[in-house]
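Internal tracking record. Fields below are filled automatically when a chain is submitted to the structure queue. Please do not edit lines marked as system-generated. If the sequence contains nonstandard residues, flag them in the REMARKS field before resubmitting.
Queue: standard
Priority: normal
Entity type: single polypeptide chain
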Amino acid sequence: KGKETLEGNEYIVLQQKFPNDDINTLYIDPDTYLTYMIKQKGLDMMENLVDQEMYMSDYRKVGGVMQAHTITIHQEGEEFGVLVVSEVKHNSGLEDSFFQDLK
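SYSTEM-GENERATED OUTPUT FOLLOWS
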């Protein structure tokens, strides 16, 4: 989708469209190629579909991959919650059968 300026910084804008017609818009830092924000639809506390923005920060290298350790969620422009990741493990030995019922 090109580039867009948010809060004085320019970001690469990508859109991801899903088979159910949901669309995620990703704002990528052009210097680091890390995700700054994702705009999407989400459910509020009353299970109403609302506009949602997720801001990624506190990136740390884990297993050679940069991972956001803080995700701040805004719904309808107001802070809804903050997710702080304390640990990330890659390839931890989970059996494939663990994921079978997630389809």
